[in-house]
Write a structure and sequence with these properties.
Layout lengths: L5 E3 L11 E10 L16 E8 L5 E3 L1 E3 L1 H5 L10 H17 L7 E5 L8 H5 L3 E5 L3 H9 L4 E2 L5 H10 L3 E7 L8 H11 E12 L1 H7 L11 E2 L2 H10 L3 E8 L5 E7 L7 H13 L4 H24 L4 E4 L3 H10 L6 E5 L17 E2 L1 H6 L4 E4 L5 H10 L5 E5 L6 E5 L2
Parallel strand pairs: 6-7, 6-9, 7-8, 9-10, 14-15, 14-17, 15-16, 17-18
Antiparallel strand pairs: 1-5, 2-3, 3-4, 4-11, 10-13, 12-13, 18-19
Helix pairs in contact: 5-6
Length: 413
Amino acid sequence: MDKKLFKAVKSCRICGNEDLVLILDLGDQPPANSLRGDLETPLPKIPLQLFCCSSCGSVQLSVSVSPEYLFRHYVWVTGTAETTRKYSQLFCDRILERMPTEGRFKVIEIASNDGTFLRPFKEMGHEILGVDPAGNIAKLANKAGIDTIPEFFGTAVADKIVSSFGHADCIFARNVVPHVEDAHDVLEGMRRCMDENALGAIEFHYAGKIHRELHYDSIYHEHNLYLSLTSLCRMFRDHGLTCFDVTESPISGGSLVAYFSNKKKIQTPSFKRVIENEARTGLNTVKVWKDFARRSIRHKKALVNAIRSIPAKIIGYGASARSSTLLNFCGIDNSILECIADKSQMKHNKFTPGTDIRIVSPDEAFGLKPSSVLLLAWNFRDEILKEIKDKYGFSGQVVIPFPGKVRIVKVKS
C-alpha cells in the first residue's frame, strides 16, 4: 500500500465536522482506471471506504488519492457512447433556455474531456473554452477544434482564465465536483469566472439515485463526494451562490443538473420538490446510508449467485471505472470472465485493475461466441443490448446487475 498516493480525510469535505461515520468498506482496491498492459506492473491498493458526516450528512470517501495519479492521463473519453453524444445537445438546449439574455455567449466547461459538451455551443456560434487536467484528452480536444487548457481547475486557474478569456456568460462542470480533492476551491473558481449575470450548472451523480437503486459500483477513488442537492446547496451558500433549478440527466445511471447564479432567483417547483424529498426520506442521515450498506452486501451475494447459475463462456461488457469496484468487491476475476468488451481503443489489450481481465474490442469479444454477458456498463443498457443483438447476433443470457435487484434477461438475435 503506497501511502504517498493518498491521504486520510480527517474532517468532512463540505462542513468541516470531524465526526465521520463508516458506512461501507469495499476493501483495499487499486484506483479504478489503473489499467495496465502487462500483469508484471505493480498496482497500488488503497482503502475504499464510504463515510457519512454525522453533522451535515454528506457522504464521502475516507481518503483522497493524488489527483496527479488519477487524472493526468485519462482513459475515459466522453464521446464514446451514443447516449452521451445525444444528451450533449439536450444539455446545451437546457442551458440556453435558462440564460437571462440572448446573444453570443462566452461558455466555459470545467473538466471538459474531449469537448463533446462544448461542441453544440461552438456549432451555434458561441465562444468556448474547456479546462481539463488530462493532457492526452486535452490534446485530442484541441486537435478537434475545441480550445482546451490542460490544467486542474481551481481559483488560481480561474484568475488566469479571467485575465485572458474574460468573464463567462455560462460556466458548467459535469461530473467533476464530486471528483476533486477540494470542491470548495472549484466552486470559488467558478464564481470568479462568472459575469455578473452569468448562469452556472453542475451535473452530479445523484446520491438519492445511488441510494435508492443501490449504485455501490459508483463508489471508487475518483469520486470523493456523493452529493445530495442539499449538500451541494450548502456549498453554494458558502460562496455566495444561489441554486434555483434542477433537471434530470441520464448519465451515470441517474444524475441531476443544478443551475445556479450570483444573484438570488425564484426557486422552481422542481428544485423545491427535490429538497423536500431529501428532507422527508432522511437522505442526509447516517441511518439511511447504513441501510444502503446492508442492501449492498445482500446484492453482492445475489450477483455472485446469479453468475454461478448461468452457462459458461461469460464475457463482460464495459470496462468502466465503476466496473472495477463491482468486480473487485464481488471477487469476479479472469477465472470467471473470458474478457471484457469495450469500445475505447485506449483500453484495448489492457487488464482490469485487481481482477486481471483482458479488455478487448467488442468485435474480438463476440468473436469468441460467448453464451452469456455480464453487463458492467448497465447505465447504457438499451444501447448495448441493441448492439449485441443486431450487430453481433448474440443469443444468450445477459446479467444486468443494476439498478436495484440483479436480473437475467434472455437475448435472441
